[in-house]
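[09:14] KT: can someone run the structure on this one? pasting the chain below
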Amino acid sequence: MIGRDFIIPEGVQAIHQPHRLLFRYYKDRYAAMLLEDILQPRLAIRDLRASRYGRLLDRPLIKALVAAKGDGFLHRDDLVNLWPYETQTYVVTFALWGSRDRRDRRWHQISRPRRQLVLQLNFPHAHNAEYYRLIPDAKEMPFAADYHPVNIGPRLTMAWSRIDIDFASGEALIEEVQSDWIRNARESLGYALADRAGRYWEPAYRDRLETYVETALAPHTAMWSEAVLAATLHVLIHLCGITRVWYHDYETGCEIKRMTGWRPPRSLYTDLPKRFCFQMTDEVPGFILPAQPRWLRRKLEWGEARFWLTCQTTAEYAFEQD
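[09:31] RB: done, structure tokens below
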């Protein structure tokens, strides 16, 4: 079964997916995907610009497309055919994370004690070939974090998201998006260049690492966060039938997940959901409330916390037979 965004093995349910999905992505593809969902089949550009989706029209590819429209309308077919030359094909796999044991909740950084779905966005084959060619100790997986839910061979996880899905309510909470690989690779290069330290301090190793980061890794560095969130939303909305997707606000998320030491980059919980047209609300995903301590539950119920929320009511994408 084939869709423009995913290639899906016939008869496989995504939520119990042991095989692979292929996700084609280019920079700012998320804007086209979000607009495709609301253009059924077209909307006036003036109305789009005045809506919460107006920011999407400022993305370079969409902006150029809008400028060429003479009838004042943006059509869904305009976006279906919008495929630039540089497109990456990522491999999507799934895993589970977390536990029903309350004692493990803080370690797993989850909002309630239960197993969660992990979407793993794995590098394309072209990247992997360059990685093994350029990095001397590639087989040791120096940029992977094996204490996180990632693949370390033969597929290599670029980024991942953790999702708490509540099928009873038709809602899901995106707990986290992260890329250990890209952060660790860039940090290794920084150490090597600035301090002449770390495992790549020797000039030959340092030069190969720099080539890897600035060529093979660079296209993915520029868009990993939007790519993994776009893939996550597509799976939740179009393959799992979720209609309301929540996303942690930075401060609220750290409090609920009891993150008192290391904290994630703030931009992943502020700028990223805003780019995807999530809206800030003091409403709370009801399915996580029973798991909270009394003081925190009271705070959430009284509207003293914030979440990002997006709602989807459009039909699924039409997948073609392979």
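[09:33] KT: thanks! The radius of gyration is 21 Å.
[09:34] RB: yep, looked fine to me
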